[in-house]
Amino acid sequence: EKWEEATEIARRQVRNGAHIIDVCLQSTDREEMKDIPLFYEFLIRKIKAPVMIDTTDPKAVELSLTYCQGKALINSINLEDGEEKFEQLCPIAKAYGAALVVGSIDEDKLQAQAFTRERKLSIAERSYKLLTEKYGIPPEDIVFDPLVFPCATGDANYIGGAVETIEGIRLIKENIPYSKTVLGISNISFGLPANAREVVNSVFLYYCTKAGLDLAIVNAEKLERFASIPADERRLAEQLLFNTPPPDGDEKLRAAPEDWREQTQEQKAAINQFHIAAIAEYFRRAAPKKKAKAADLPLDQRLGNYIIEGTKDGLVEDLERKRQEGAAPLDIINGPLMAGMSEVGRLFNNNELIVAEVLQSAEAMKAAVGYLEQFMAKADTAARGKIVLATVKGDVHDIGKNLVEIILGNNGYNVVNLGIKVPPETLIQAYRDHKPDAIGLSGLLVKSAQQMVITAGDLREHGIQVPMLVGGAALSDKFTRGKIAPSYGEAVCYAKDAMTGLRLMNEIMDPATREATLRAHRHSEAVPDAAPQAEPVVWSERRSAKVRLDIPIPAAPSLDRKVRDIKHLTEVWSYINPFMLYGRHLGYKGNFDKALAEHEEKAVNLYHQMEEIKRHAAQFMQVKAVWQFFEAERDGNSVNLFSPGGESPIHTFRFGRQPREEGLCLSDYLLEGDEGKRDHLAMFVVTAGAGIREKSEELKQRGEYLSAHGVQALAIETAEGAAEWLHRRIREDWGFPDAPTTTMHDRFTSKYRGKRYSFGYPACPNLDDQQGMWKLLRPEDIGVELTEGMMMEPEASVSALVFHHPDCAYFTASEIEEPALV
Ligand code: B12
After folding, report:
1. How many distinct helices (H) and strands (E) make up the chain?
2. Are 499 and 573 in a shared domain?
């Protein structure tokens, strides 16, 4: 009674692309009704895919249905005993909204299971009429199974069965609208050697799908990809399936008609025998050859391949083989393993590998080095160089810096990671302790880029001269060259991503390229800021006419501060923008949702990896939120906030205005109050970051790099998802819920009433305003603190102001510090 293991099989099938899981618990020596609760309890917790209930007992069908969430399928009914099955199962299917699989079998004692395409269609049409007209089953809930006989058993009665099934599917799809078709594929190849079956099944599936088959019952773990089947194997399978006259058979066979139905009995049988023998013979010979493929590669190439493919299967055995050949551990690392890592870098730069795959390669590298370390003397070091890495003072940005650590660390560099919020003094001390070849600085915000200038100056004052690498979202090559490099007086290289960081490190450590690289990044003179604009900036406090005023003020709900733990993680996750999670953080290129819907391999793999990370994260990730509505009044470019009915403001935010005619300012979005009735705005802070840094660090230490990065990426996008979720809730509370037709994509492109604005973004760039928010909302109560750099700790946190005005738009306001009044 290994229920857990059984559900594991289901989960693996789903991971390999299965969309429905067929469950059969019927067994002659067990009580099905007792087993159903035991098994389904496990199953429904493990998989979300719909279930196909495979049993002949109507009571068992009903009991199973009580466990199924969403739509289930009942497999199956047919007309073998007249309408008996229909009478028993249709009411149950209707009551639970389940779909019904209808086999093409009827009462005809001689033929029973339909063989010809015409009979398959006629049984389907009869069943359809009964189901829709007599039993009230909707056409969309009917799935026809045309059934298929094996084509390679040598039984003369079954020759042509493949063609009839393919054509049967085509006829059903053409003649019966709205319904679906399903077919158990593997029966077709019954009797053939196992490796031949995989190919024949795959080719048969291809033709069925082209004829319109909607659902296939296959072993998702074993299915050979049609596109990867070699042409000669595909031809062997096609000739068998279609019973085509063999071009290399004797003259009599070659002369037979193409269409199996026009062949004589002898021709049919002889052609079938010819193809069965040919395919069986081919795969008998091919079997050992296929297996030998990977093992035949030279050992060094195999070692490199583990890294390139990011797999550990067989890695230790091959490392041991290499050691037995007498290779020193260090030479193995610097030789074949590092060659693999270089290839990974090349493939990444060529857009052939994505971030998630590079992390898996790093995992394999870490496992290899971890194994070899035990055979290395303490003094042996594979290091190509040493770098001290830190996120600058006031900044809590961890995820980007950690990616750099993983990539450099697994490409032979010794990385000393000092963590986040690192002040210059700590860096100076670390330099003295570790004597690194380079210093790496990271930071998320514009303020952090300025902090890098200060830090670089401090390092210079202490005589530090090693090359510096810098990176982070708000940084640019121009700022690096124009501000940080002059402050440091030595080479400072901007890296747009971790792989660029690796290339730069390699160039710096290679004597052949070092000087040229350093020279190219050394700038002793600060680049002056762009020349001031010739035209004076239009500074105005005038409300923009682009914003309407003839809109009634919506009543705000309660003005209390709300502090909440948001427990339903799955719902919050449904508000995560896949473009950000899979695209920006895991590196997927292209439209992820579309690729997933089309079962594109990379997208499916990434999706399952992330689902795994979510399952793990569900145990510790916490989403918290604090929000409040405030009475608000516009005062020029300022917004005054009041306690309910209050006379004088409890806080004032000053915003910038677009420096042009009818330029916008956030204050414009507040409506003029009348008769003591004020407009409102809402404010919130959400976080999903508690404990994430520690979890990620733990995974990183274990060498589980993809998970370590995945957990952090999930947390930051969960914070963003929670902001999206809470904003929707605020709109609801405010009395203008989204239309039922609003999609997540609409939300990601802010197609709803009003907008949310975060300090630090272009409409309100002044991050110091975060302090006002902290005074009013007290986000410390959900564990979010403000650093001296105005960043929120933990990292995965978002703050925002919410306006309700339908004319709200995103825009870039001018900085308010230097108004040129005209
Ligand atoms: C995703 C995102 C978020 C996420 C996560 C942020 C994060 N930690 O990465 C969330 C939703 C949490 C977020 C929140 C905020 N964000 Co934000 N965010 C972004 C966004 C869209 C992408 C950042 C990203 O890709 N991160 C993923 C990491 C992996 O990438 P990375 O840091 O760039 O690191 C890579 C490289 O830069 C490089 N690298 C980094 N460091 C180093 C160091 C070395 C030595 C080397 C070699 C390489 C290297 O390698 C890394 C890996 O390849 C940027 C805009 C943009 N297009 O970049 C805005 C952006 C960074 N955010 C911004 C702002 C304002 C905020 C908030 C302040 C808004 C708010 N009020 O809530 C908060 C601040 C969060 C906090 N804790 O205080 C602004 C910052 C500008 C400013 N004013 O300073 C930006 C630039 C948007 C903008 N155009 O205005 N944000």
Report:
1. 30, 21
2. no
